[in-house]
Amino acid sequence: MIPPFETFYDAHRAEIFRFLDRRLGRDRAEDAFQETFLRALRAYPRLEHGEHLRAWVFTIANRIVFDDARKRKPGGELPELPVEDGLPAFEDLAPFTDDLPPKERAAVVLRYGYDLTYDEIGAAIGSSTQAARQAASAGVRRLRKEHE
Amino acid sequence: MTVSPSLDERFRAAAATADLLDVAYDVLPDTPVGPLLVGVTGRGVCRISFDSEPEHQLEELARVFGPRVLRSPKPIEQLRRELDEYFEGRRQHFDIETDVRGMPAYNVKVLAELARVEYGHTTTYGALAALTGNPRAARAVGTVMNRNPIPIVLPCHRVIGASGSLTGYGGGLDRKEHLLRLEGAIL
User: Fold this and answer.
1) Each residue of B3-62: pLDDT tens digit?
2) Domain total for chain B?
3) E strands within B50-105?
4) pLDDT value of position B105
C-alpha cells in the first residue's frame, strides 16, 4: 500500500532539503525542493508499492541537481564541492561514472552521492545488500584504475 | 537545516495549483462545534470529520480517492467560507458539491435523500427509510447516518427519533443539539 502523500512528504522533506541545500546552496535549493516533490507527486499514482520511497525520492532530487548543473554550465564541468565526511563529493565523482556498467554506476552514485545504505541501494537496484556492496566497491576499483 | 514554513506552504499551494492532488485537506481549528478536519477532491467536499487528527483519516482517504492526499489550504477555501457563513447563520444551503465515491450504493441513496432535508427542519430515521424504499429500515438508516462522511453539509443532524428525541450523532449529541439550535429547529 502506498502511504498518503502527506506521510511520505513529512517523512522525507527535511533530509531532501538538507541534501539539496548541501549540493546547490540555499537559494537554488528552495526551487529544487519544490520541483522534487512536484515531480514525486506527478509520478506517485504510478508507484506499484510503498517500498524504497526514500531511495526513490533521492533519485528524483539528484536528477534535479544534475539538471540544474547542466543548465548553469552547458557542456562544462560540474561544480567542485568540498569533500564531506571523508567521502568523495558526488559532483567530483559524477562525470567519471558515466562509463561504468549500469549497476556499478548506480551503486557508486547512490552510496557516495546520496549517502544511502547498502540495504537501500540493494532495494533501489533490485539486488541483495551484499551485491550492492560488491557493485559499489567494484565500481570504485574500476574508477581508480581508469583514472590512475 | 529544516524546511522553512514559507517554503512548505509554497509547495503545498503549488501542488494544488498544478492540479496534482487527489484530496486536499486542512484542519479548521476553531469552529463552534470544535476543530474539524475537512477534505475536498476535484469534485467537491469528500470529508468533514469531528476527529481532527489527520493520521486517523489520511489512509482511508488515500484508499478511497487516491494516494495524493496532502494538507493544502487553498482548495479548501470555498468550503471554509461556506462553513463560516453557515455557523454565523448567514447560509442555509451549501453550494459546494459532495463527493461520496467509495460508499455502498444504499448509503449513497440514503445520503442523497438526506441532502433534501431542508435547513431548520427535521425528519426521522423511519421517514428517511420509507423514502429510500423500505419503511422498516430505520436502523439501517441510522447506521448510514452514523457513517456519514460529510456531516453538516449532508445534514444527518436533522434526523431524529420518531419520539422527538435526538437519539444519537456521530459527533456526539452536544454537537447535534448545537446545530439544530443554530438552525432554529429546536429551542
Assistant:
1) 999 999 999 999 999 999 999 999 999 999 999 999 999 999 999 999 988 888 999 999
2) 2
3) 69-71
4) 95
Cell (9 digits) for A76: 562544462
- Which one is catalytic: B156, B159, B182, B185? B156
Predicted model pTM: 0.79
The architecture (CATH level 2) of A81-148 comes to Orthogonal Bundle (1.10)
Sign, Cα dihedral of A123, A129, A133, A138: negative
Query: Phi/psi zone of residue A101: left (φ > 0), alpha (ψ -120 to 50 degrees), beta?
Result: beta
Domain ranges of chain A: 1-76, 81-148
Residues B97 and B45: beta-carbon distance below 8 Å: yes
Give the closest of B1, B11, B63 to A37, CB-based: B11
Chains A and B: how many Cβ contacts under 8 Å? 67
Please state, rounded to an integer, the average pLDDT across all residues of chain A.
Answer: 80
Range list of β-strands (E), A5-143: none
Distances (CA, A) of B183 to A90, B49, B88, B124, B170: 64, 20, 10, 17, 19
Fold of the domain built from segment(s) A1-76: Rna Polymerase Sigma Factor; Chain: A (1.10.1740)
